Amino acid sequence: MSDLNKLTLAEARDLLRAGDVTSVALTEACLTAIEGAGALNAFVHKTPELALERAKAADALLAAGEAPAMCGLPIGIKDLFCTEGVPSQAASRILQGFKPEYESTVSAKLRDAGAVMLGKLNMDEFAMGSSNESSVYGNAVNPWKVDARDLTPGGSSGGSAAAVAADLCLAATGTDTGGSIRQPAAFTGTVGIKPTYGRCSRWGIVAFASSLDQAGPMTKTVRDAAIMLEAMCGHDAKDSTSADLPVPNFEAMLTGDIRGKTIGIPREYRMEGMPEEIGALWDKGADMLRDAGAKIVEISLPHAKYALPAYYVIAPAEASSNLARYDGVRYGHRATLAAGDGITEMYEKTRAEGFGPEVQRRVMIGTYVLSAGFYDAYYNRARKVRTLIKRDFELAFADGVDAILTPATPSAAFGLGEMADADPVQMYLNDVFTVTVNLAGLPGISVPAGLDSQGLPLGLQLIGRPWEEGELLKTAHVLETAAGFVAKPGKWW
Amino acid sequence: MSEINLETARKVAKLSRIAVDEADLPELAQSLSNILTFMEELNEVDVEGVEPMTSVTPMRLKRRVDGVTDGDMQARILSNAPDAREGFFAVPKVVE
To answer: What element of type H or E holds A171?
Structure first.
């Protein structure tokens, strides 16, 4: 069988269980695809020996009829996840050479579910970025291409999105603090879900903004997202914010029946200057859900426009605290010191060399908004606005709305380097549709829904009620089926 | 419009423990000012009587018995240190 790397998780799982393929064959197909895709710079640490070892073990379990849910399925892991004995550096120079002595809870759950890790995936440094251009490994490149330009796969989970879209792996992990799963998924024609805050353990994932960070799967289909999310979720005593709730069988909830559901369309999301084709796709998405039996209602989320500024106070504030641990003492990079340098010079030089410009900027902004005299004016005010943003959603849900439909991004993928001279705030606007979901702690999913006039993928976002990922996936599955998005990037790499 | 002057930029860099060249301070100050101006949109919102969010999902944090759950892994903890000696993390001299 050829092109095994192009299979979905569900297809590969069924073939494995029928004994029609082996995990070793699947894994080898992916490793070959990865070897041939250097131009995409998606996989930044490859683990072929480990992968083949796990694939052989998976084949043995399959043969014995004891296969767990993701047995033998080859996946990629974002570099933000600590993986035992395998470099894990959050795409930062400051963690150069760091090999964790432990495995993150989410990657351990995937491993225990039988998944085969192929290696670590490129990303923006410390997950801070929307284009994968702040990575110490260099840019990841979108497999989608319409002219001579190399396009961004989005960020921060840019390597994950590029790898899944280019069939280098069957699926990948991502993390999402302000849109870092959903925006790259939209830019690459793939599916990405950020679950409710607390669904996935954050233990062992390099922290960016702890009250916003969540892990989630990036996959080729909604069904695959359901399969992989289930394997990633669950309570973990090592993360006190992880929810002690039963994890449903998400895949079983993909019934295709959304009759009677109410879908809200937030009027504040119809932004000035939004490209017409994004507005048109959004309308089309609403029509598809209506045709499937859902009721479409207009809703209001009056504080939505304040989500980005609130986010860019809260996330850097938390980052400045979380990143204080990178001091050149316990792990990672330490600067070479001059004669007479003391411990303060060691900290300052290490952090100046180890952090890239965007990370430095955010640490400093965070330090400023938390500093004496500004704490109330910025940080506390932002947290109050966050309360109001969450309340907007609660009121909509209390009015009977089951899910909310919005565009995923304000544009299709842009060219790498095109934003280099722009103000950082311009780059932040990429998150305008996704960031409210993190601030409110809700589940959100990006589903590929069409191509723009250049031929680049566009995504629609569905936002669900807290803890109702199953219902959200069900609606997303209906949208996916109706949109019938089957386009793949032509291979140029 | 908020303005971060050179002195404030220098102070923020110091508090952040990030060495910034004097020559780079003007650009840093400008870029921080622009971001702060963007944040000032928040001043339009009436937040009178609103509680600042402390936890996005209302949940009672789990408790456990206050006992040792881990330990005896000195070598593993030190294995990634840039400079470890005699079972300790080593740093430049802290006190004269």
So the answer is: strand A171-176
C-alpha pair distances (Å), A122 with each of A42, A91, B59, B94: 5, 7, 34, 37
* Burial bucket for residue A253 (CB in 10 Å: 0-12, 13-18, 19+): middle
Instruction: Judge: A240–B52 Cβ closer than 8 Å, yes or no.
Output: no
Write the DSSP assignment of A453-491 as a string of letters.
Answer: TTS-EEEEEEEE-TT-HHHHHHHHHHHHHHHT----PPP
Query: Which residue among the candidates A156, A157, A242, A320 is catalytic per the annotation?
Result: A156
Residue A308, sorted as left (phi over 0), alpha (psi -120 to 50) or beta, turns out to be alpha
Is residue B37 domain-resident?
A: yes
Could you give the 3-state DSSP secondary structure of residue A86? strand
Which pair of tokens denotes residue B82? Answer: 């840039």
Which of B12, B27, B35 is best to mutate for the A interface (most A CBs within 10 A)?
A: B35
Which DSSP symbol is given to A451? E
**Does A423 contact B at CB distance below 8 Å?**
yes
CA distance B30 to chain A (A): 10
How many Å apart are CA A41 and CA A121, to the nearest integer? 9
pLDDT score, position B1: 47
Residues in B closer than 8 angstroms to A346, CB to CB, are 91-92
Number of domains in chain B: 1
Largest CA distance in chain B: 58
Q: How many CB atoms lie within 10 A of CB A399?
A: 11
Q: Is A49 exposed, middle or buried (0-12, 13-18, 19+ CB in 10 A)?
A: exposed
Domain ranges of chain A: 1-493
Residue-number span of the structural domain to which B29 is assigned: 6-44
Residue in B35, B45, B52 closest to A303 by CB: B45
ipTM, 2 dp:
0.95
Is B12's CB within 8 Å of A439's CB? no
Q: Give the largest CA-CA distance in chain A.
A: 74
Check if the beta carbon of residue A193 is closer than 8 Å to that of residue A434: no
A180 part of the active site: yes
| Cα distances (Å, whole numbers) of residue A26 to A49, A58, A143 | 14, 11, 21
For residue B34, is it within any domain? Answer: yes
Residue B81 resides in a domain: no
Just give the CATH number of A1-493. Answer: 3.90.1300.10
DSSP state of B66: S
Local mean pLDDT, 10-residue blocks, chain B (96 residues)? 86 97 95 92 96 89 89 95 96 82
Cis peptide before A156 (omega within 30 of 0): yes
B29, part of any domain: yes
Q: What whole-number distance in Å separates Cα of residue A142 and Cα of residue A150?
A: 7
Whole-angstrom distance, CA of residue A469 vs CA of residue A452: 28
pTM > 0.95: yes
- pLDDT below 50 — which residues of chain A? none
